[in-house]
Design brief:
With 215 residues, this protein is of the alpha/beta class. 53% of the residues lie in helices and 14% in strands.
Length: 215
């Protein structure tokens, strides 16, 4: 295949994943695996010392996770395109990663052809989401339209926290889902009660259901 070779770095704390990805890339003339890291810190070192066009990274890793790594890359090596690989399909997580600078997001059930397509798409300046995420994004858009009434004074993050509370998640779980601290979750919860004029989580849940945030 003519054209430039895309230099790809891989980051996942499970070696079986990176070895499988490396083997997949080796079968493509236009793709070259230039480095493998097993942590965000290792990936950062690779990117600092090698020419990398696209970084394919896991989201859930100990230490520096994929979100923190994405943020570092976009701040320090903005020319590197980042694709995040994860088991999570929540639109709020994908949106947060896009805000941090990721160019693509793949769920781990993605097929080999989609992985290769994602790498080529983001290298070419496009964004790429796993095909199964489109429905999730459409639901979020629909929810936002429904929530224009009683929730119009809330920020997007407050609506995300309200939805998570209505799903029965605790502060720690919400923090992990939205990449914020439990203390920040608690602050949002307090602000939600004040803005919506309720005095407990049960009241917030009732409003979330009434506004269509949860079924």
């Amino acid at each position: 295949m003519s054209g430039p070779t895309i230099r790809v770095a891989l980051c996942d704390d499970h070696r079986i994943v990176t070895e499988g990805m490396k083997e997949l890339l080796s079968g493509c003339d236009d793709l070259d695996c230039v480095g493998i890291a097993q942590s965000g810190v290792e990936a950062r070192y690779l990117i600092e010392h090698l020419k990398v066009d696209v970084l394919l990274t896991d989201l859930d890793m100990p230490g520096m996770d994929g979100a923190q790594l994405t943020e570092w890359v976009k701040r320090n090596k903005p020319e590197v395109k980042v694709i995040v690989l994860s088991m999570h399909e929540e639109a709020s997580i994908v949106k947060r990663l896009m805000e941090l600078g990721a160019s693509g997001y793949l769920v781990k059930s993605a097929g080999k052809e989609e992985v290769l397509l994602a790498i080529r798409n983001v290298y070419g300046g496009q964004r790429h989401f796993s095909s199964g995420l489109l429905e999730s994004f459409m639901k979020v858009g629909s929810t936002s339209a429904k929530s224009a009434g009683r929730l119009h004074e809330l920020s997007e993050r407050e609506i995300e926290v309200l939805s998570a509370l209505a799903e029965g998640l605790g502060n720690k779980e919400i923090g992990e889902k939205l990449f914020i601290s439990p203390r920040t979750v608690d602050t949002h919860r307090t602000n939600l009660m004040r803005k919506l004029n309720v005095h407990n989580v049960a009241g917030l849940v009732r409003i979330a259901i009434a506004e269509g945030l949860v079924k």
